[in-house]
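Researcher: Good morning. I'm working through a list of sequences from a screen, and I'd like to move beyond sequence-only analysis. For each chain I'm collecting a predicted structure so we can compare shapes side by side. This is the next one on the list. No need for commentary yet; just the structure.
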Amino acid sequence: MAPRRSYSPRKLGTMLDTAHIVIGVLVVIMAVFTVLDPMKYKFLFPVIFFLAAVLTLITSWFMFTAYKRNSKKKIAGIIYLIVGLLLFGLFVISAVSIWVHG
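Model: Good morning. Structure tokens for this chain:
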């Protein structure tokens, strides 16, 4: 069995910041294209929701991992988890309506 990997809160924070920067830049670029010509780039709406859901779920995981004994941070992690699942639901709904039904 492989040993369980444990990260320090500082390393987790760096990984979270990197994810925020990369995904944030991608979302902003796609949002600009979508605003400029919504009909041409309507296929980007589900991708934007998916990336937002991924980022929110990563933040939720960070809250649960980095703050194991802080109950206020765990409540924030639960809220992030709920919002991430709602965004994933929006991704599914928009993907079905745009990609499947055209």
